[in-house]
User: What shape does this take?
Amino acid sequence: MTETPDTTEATETVDDQTPETLGVADERRRRHEIWVSGTEERMPFAAATNEGAQEMLPRDEDPALAIQRGIAVDDDFLEQPRIVDEERQIINMGPQHPSTHGVLRLQIELEGETVRRVKPIIGYLHTGMEKTAETLTYTQGSTNVTRMDYLSPFFNELAFSLTVEQLLGIDLPERADAIRILMTELNRVASHLLFTATMGMDIGALSMMIYGWREREVVLDFFEKVTGLRMNHNYIRPGGVAADLPDGWQDDVVSLMGVVSAGVDEYEELLNENPIFLDRTLGVGVLTPEECKQFGITGPIARASGIEWDLRKAMPYSGIDKYEFDVPTGQHGDVFDRYIVRVAELRESLKIIEQVLDTMPTGDYRTTDPKVTPPPRKRIDESMEALIHHFKLFTSGIEVPPGTAYQSVEGPRGEIGCHLVSKGGTRPWRMHWRAPSFAAVQALPAMMSDSLIADLIAALASTDPVLGDVDR
Amino acid sequence: MAGVSSEPGFLVSTLEKGVNWARTQSMWPATFGLACCAIEMMGTGAAHNDLARFGMEVFRASPRQADLMIVAGRVSQKMAPVLRQVYDQMAEPKWVISMGACASSGGMFNNYAIVQGVDEVVPVDIYVPGCPPGPQSLMHGILTLHEKIMSGEIQRSTGVL
Assistant: This one.
């Protein structure tokens, strides 16, 4: 804790020092004190921000540790003639920084303007959601998981619901699956629109921020109409979806698609041949396919490096294999390819949405299994069974048999996977998530080492990390 | 001046009104986005809702240039000291809006990781409910803060006024 030596002690300890230097050091130390959360106590800033094992280690320790943990990055960088140590400095970027997309902290070792090493430090948004899930029933669970990757709430809900349904061993009506695909693909559109907006802003194309948000709001308006909320919907639930689509949803989707595709045309006109944008993105933050595999990168980042891997094709879920779409890939694995791949994916998603619109089946929007779906109000008055099911569902919840299950879906950032362990009963015994942003953040050092500071921002923006997904 | 008013304190009170008006009309928020609410906060500043109407479109990255801290999202135990540090770095007079259920009370995350309300760390002027609050809710919160400043209800300035 804070040391505030009183005058008698101070005079004893400074016998061999000059009082002036101690005064300066003391003053400096006091200026770097901060409050401890929830108390009136203060502690030294250095102690408060010490990350322990996450801290960037001195140069001579780092390679040894990396080899020991098997995380040594094979780098093509040729060591320059030694630069004197005075010119090397370690700076912090974040956790409060506008370009870190939340609360990511990067420790960066600089030599002049060149980034030599990067160490991502995470955990500033750790919410304990996996632990909280153990206290929530399966019905309440989707309320929790939707807040993880808050830019793709439907995908979180979908992965969770599919896993629970896998444990329950139930099949869904076709309409429920189609609604799920419709909403998740719209979510992908919204997420990629936000990516173009924030990436444009980070790179300096500030007007992209305004444009991207303009189209995203249109999508969010539709979400609000369907689910009642703009984000964190809790709409896809184990057993189906929360409610049927509202009347006239077809017209809304048609007009939405028109607005979005017109908007995307504008972005491409604005960015694709913009010399400043090209200078900032071409050949920047390159990840090779091998590095992608080593770091467990999935989604648009891997596809930009040329890995043709999309869970919608490889392990289809919710009947997505019924719809025709392409998997766009890049070649160079740089920031520009990641942007191009995402924009192409956005158009593919619009294609899927169009097909869902034409082929939306009629029927129930949730399963009719009485152990999962509560009976309609009228049935409770007629049937004793229905009354019992209703009572059981609302007092304890859905009973899930013991077992483990894993199910993943192709989110806007890659593979979002949910692993559930059930010991029977109405609450999961353990829930764990495979988060795509987590892998992307761990790959930042491979992307950023030996680039310039400005390129670092571009590389970070291109991974489109969501820190809620990283830290959970 | 003698003909303007015979009541004592006229000049000072009118000056204070003018200063408060100036403060409300160009209140620069610090970018302190944490989680889901941050996206809605950015949405408030973007095209559809256009926070610039209230002279607030300049989200300052440096707390030293900001007057208002919008705590947008859940504050973890690890983030709390950072939040306090940023608040301490802001120049007086400064205000805090706690945006969303998590920042106001911990929300649905009553567990080991989340600070149960950001008012445990910094003084809060306005609580905006919602999970996340829509841009309209946030703007209502901001306008309420403006009203409170104009009415002189909250005044934490250590300066001359």
Q: What stands out?
A: The beta strands of chain A are 33-35, 42-44, 88-93, 105-111, 114-121, 236-237, 240-241, 403-411, 414-422, 430-434. Chain A has 21 helices and ten strands.
